[in-house]
Amino acid sequence: MQALMKDVKYEHKICGMYKDLAITVRTEFQQHQRNNAYISDAMDRCATNLKKRVADSSLQQYTVAVMMGGPIRTFHENLDSNLSTIEHDIIIYLLSDPTDIDSKQITFIHTNIDPETRNKIFNALYKYNPL
Prior knowledge:
Strand content: 15-25%
Shape: globular
Oligomer: single chain
Largest sheet: 5 strands, mixed
Mean pLDDT: 78
Helix content: 25-40%
Number of strands: 5
Structural class: alpha+beta
Low-confidence stretches: none
Strand order of the largest sheet: 1-5-4-2-3
Number of helices: 4
């Protein structure tokens, strides 16, 4: 996530997270810390629902990735494997924190998308709850 925050190819905005999503992401992060191989259906469902929202909207031409974790360590990445050498247009990072109020959603949008469209995407995904 830190590399994305510094990457000039992405504009990013930070917003809060709904309480139920914050609790789910935190619980999943704690489970993953106990067992590195652990990735639950809830995390895959979050990623799938977010991608579905983009696909069902006027944003369907954009590639989307979902990442989840803490400020230093990512524990879940739902990246399209066929795009591994291509940058994604939209990346959502669900940032877990011990407190609900400090759990954040960071939305990264590639700067090759025009500013007006980037603003529409930010508005469409503001505090999105994929559960």
